[in-house]
Design a protein that fits this description.
This protein is an alpha/beta fold. The chain has two domains: 121 residues, no CATH class; 94 residues, 3-Layer(aba) Sandwich (Rossmann fold), CATH 3.40.50. The protein has eight helices and nine strands. The strands form three sheets. The chain has a four-stranded parallel β-sheet with strand order 7-6-8-9, with helices on both faces. Helix 1 crosses helix 8, helix 4 crosses helix 8 and helix 6 crosses helix 7. The protein is globular and about 50 Å long.
Length: 228
């Protein structure tokens, strides 16, 4: 990955479809003035029926994303991985200097992922630095992801507690999920999905009463360091 003076083009790969103006705008807000943002999705070009054909095989194969028209879907992680190298290649062809893979999932090495920033590594690194030992609370999109995501975060000295909250949920649902998670007394909370927004964080913070890490803004601040 290179970031040359005067050449600031940020490429965003999503596991869903472009456009995702919400994700692009939040990353652009953290980038230096004049940064060009290009977003492409792993499901670009697919019809709704074709997307529905990419159903997960199991809870461990499940990813959550929002489609171009705003529909929430569960899709196969294997299918996303298979389509991702082409997305990364097209972003490089677009002239992107810095690339981010806008999903907090844990992904294996993929062709063309050299130098790509993965938010899961940012979020996990922050959590490890802030909470070497203790109880980590997770807000996750789908209840069926709990075992998989707890395993992703597991490390010695850390207890994981998780609560499901759909990123499309309203304020009342978010506050209720936060109260349920708070009752399990976490020391720190990680909001483990790129579709959670600053508004979601503002809704859950009062009930949690502990620091909460929002994936998209945490990653955006790291990108700012890379782009400056």
């Amino acid at each position: 990955m290179t970031c040359r003076p005067g050449s600031r083009t940020l490429g965003i790969a999503t596991i869903g479809q472009a456009p995702r103006d919400d994700i692009a705008a939040l990353f652009a807000a953290h980038a230096p003035a004049g940064t060009k943002v290009i977003l492409r999705g792993a499901l670009d070009g697919l019809s709704d029926a074709e997307v529905d054909g990419l159903a997960p095989e199991s809870g461990g194969d499940t990813l959550y994303t929002r489609l171009r028209g705003g529909r929430d879907v569960r899709i196969s992680k294997k299918a996303v991985i298979a389509r991702s190298p082409d997305v990364l290649a097209r972003l490089r062809q677009d002239g992107c200097d810095v690339l981010v893979y806008a999903c907090t999932g844990d992904f294996p090495p993929m062709p063309g992922d050299e130098g790509v920033l993965f938010p899961s590594r940012v979020l996990n690194g922050l959590a490890a630095g802030l909470l070497p030992r203790g109880r980590l609370g997770l807000l996750i999109p789908l209840a069926e992801q709990a075992d998989k995501l707890a395993a992703k975060w597991a490390r010695s000295g850390l207890e994981i507690v998780a609560e499901a909250l759909a990123p499309s949920a309203g304020q009342a649902e978010a506050e209720a999920a936060a109260r349920r998670l708070a009752s399990r007394q976490p020391d720190l909370v990680a909001m483990d999905c790129m579709s959670y927004t600053p508004a979601t964080k503002a809704w859950v913070k009062p009930a949690l009463d502990v620091p909460a890490l929002l994936a998209i803004t945490a990653t955006g601040r790291v990108l700012r360091e890379m782009l400056d």
